């Protein structure tokens, strides 16, 4: 079930990432790279940091093909995707939550401390988007956007919390996924933002 | 033979990278870092992604000295290098092809799937230039330039193709190197470009 | 002793990094990420390159909490920190030297060649700042600033030199730390710069 949601999420991430690349007039090589990095980069960075080999896309090279297919599809239906904007915002939110929980589960299986389990979830959920923005030469959106990494953080916290209260991994996954998704969707709907740290002085 | 071409290629990459750094008025520390990252970064990223340790430059620290020497040489003969522009374009094309084949061979030795063997070649060939552009705060050239990553991709494909047809690793190397080099040189000569994905709408 | 200096240094790095993030109006998620990356990123990059697992902050997750605390503290006393500018410049110099020596010691324990020991020190000392600048979408300061990476390089060289002359690891640490710190402070005081490589021609 989580696996099916994962496939849907990486495809959706690849599609919206392809549009980002198209907006910068990249050639198709660039489009594929941006799509791969955005969809698979979060898990890759997590695996590098935790020393967890092989990478998901090395043992499942079909993920590279699926996401490349998503990027091509986005090129074909680009103008149509605009009308599906809400669907893709929903799928992006779903991806954030699914990636986060998968990241938590992986760190849990490695018997890492709780702080690292949450961190692993947040990195899995968010690092792909940061990489995309760095490659597109932007300040990462993550650092400016409405509740995004925070929603990932809360999702990881709920997941651990349910387990700490004696819930099974299945229940933890379901409850964290539902609540995390609701939080993220509310944040989009009402444009909730994290407080900013504004510091003007040169020093 | 491939080893000698590799040494020539990393030296040439370091030299042209040093000019890039000089164009941004970097100090000599920056020049060395850009030279190292460009010449050795592709193989390093590949090794990190495949979990292949130690890094080439850790077991062969002389590569760090050779590329640093290349950067210094570029500083000394900068104005002369301009007249050798065609030579350096050729050496860069040679480097792309040599790095790609080395990357394919390494993934092959690790018994990875075919998609990953080609990917390993492309990453080895191209990631150094992407890292250089990110550190210089540019949108990676790779995403905009004439056939470059694609030439790397085709080289990897030919390499695997010759082997699939029963050719030895030596023949695969020679045929892929020659055809890949010709493709890249033709792409430079006639300014072949990959089709771009242009998408104007804000969404 | 080195351990205590390390804790002080990562806290100070996190605090000044938080101000950098504040100057770009990042939200608090961004502030934490920039603080973590700056304070712990150098050692992380070094560990990835040397294949040394687990990461320091995975086995000591309290470092994540300490540096997050430093970032919050910086937010609270931002205007006051300006008056402590000299103290923080000193702590930053101390951090550079301490990180460098820790990086050298780790590579030494891994029995790596001398060039790599120095390189490991320089990466530990400097890569955090490079990552911070890439995430903030700047050309890394390292490539333009007064003697910084060079001070790290000299510190590593002195450390190895004292050991080569028969000194113990303790003496090497103390002598390298004191001389490296003096060099860096003199470089700040007199604005010593590395020579720049200026190359104007387009090619």
TrEMBL record, chains A, B, C:
<comment type="similarity">
    <text>Belongs to the UPF0126 family.</text>
</comment>
<protein>
    <submittedName>
        <fullName>Trimeric intracellular cation channel family protein</fullName>
    </submittedName>
</protein>
<dbReference type="InterPro" id="IPR005115">
    <property type="entry name" value="Gly_transporter"/>
</dbReference>
<feature type="domain" description="Glycine transporter">
    <location>
        <begin position="4"/>
        <end position="76"/>
    </location>
</feature>
<feature type="transmembrane region" description="Helical">
    <location>
        <begin position="87"/>
        <end position="108"/>
    </location>
</feature>
<feature type="transmembrane region" description="Helical">
    <location>
        <begin position="171"/>
        <end position="187"/>
    </location>
</feature>
<keyword id="KW-1133">Transmembrane helix</keyword>
<keyword id="KW-1003">Cell membrane</keyword>
<feature type="domain" description="Glycine transporter">
    <location>
        <begin position="90"/>
        <end position="161"/>
    </location>
</feature>
<feature type="transmembrane region" description="Helical">
    <location>
        <begin position="63"/>
        <end position="80"/>
    </location>
</feature>
<feature type="transmembrane region" description="Helical">
    <location>
        <begin position="114"/>
        <end position="135"/>
    </location>
</feature>
<feature type="transmembrane region" description="Helical">
    <location>
        <begin position="29"/>
        <end position="51"/>
    </location>
</feature>
<dbReference type="Pfam" id="PF03458">
    <property type="entry name" value="Gly_transporter"/>
</dbReference>
<dbReference type="GO" id="GO:0005886">
    <property type="term" value="C:plasma membrane"/>
</dbReference>
<feature type="transmembrane region" description="Helical">
    <location>
        <begin position="6"/>
        <end position="22"/>
    </location>
</feature>
<keyword id="KW-0812">Transmembrane</keyword>
<keyword id="KW-0472">Membrane</keyword>
<feature type="transmembrane region" description="Helical">
    <location>
        <begin position="147"/>
        <end position="165"/>
    </location>
</feature>
């Amino acid at each position: 079930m989580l696996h099916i949601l994962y496939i849907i999420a990486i495809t959706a991430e690849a599609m919206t990432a392809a549009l980002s690349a198209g907006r910068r007039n990249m050639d198709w090589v660039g489009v594929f790279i941006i799509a791969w990095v955005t969809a698979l980069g979060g898990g890759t960075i997590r695996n590098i940091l935790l020393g967890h080999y092989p990478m998901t896309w090395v043992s499942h090279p079909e993920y590279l093909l699926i996401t490349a297919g998503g990027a091509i599809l986005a090129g074909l239906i680009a103008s149509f995707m605009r009308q599906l904007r809400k669907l893709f915002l929903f799928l992006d939110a779903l991806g954030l939550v699914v990636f986060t929980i998968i990241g938590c589960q992986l760190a849990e299986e490695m018997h890492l401390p709780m702080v690292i389990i949450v961190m692993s979830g947040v990195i899995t959920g968010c690092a792909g988007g940061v990489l995309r923005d760095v490659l597109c030469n932007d300040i990462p959106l993550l650092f400016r956007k409405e509740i995004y990494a925070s929603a990932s953080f809360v999702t990881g916290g709920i997941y651990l919390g349910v387990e700490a209260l004696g819930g099974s991994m299945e229940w933890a996954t379901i409850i964290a996924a539902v609540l995390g998704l609701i939080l993220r969707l509310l944040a989009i709907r009402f444009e909730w933002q994290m407080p900013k740290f504004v510091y003007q002085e040169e020093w």
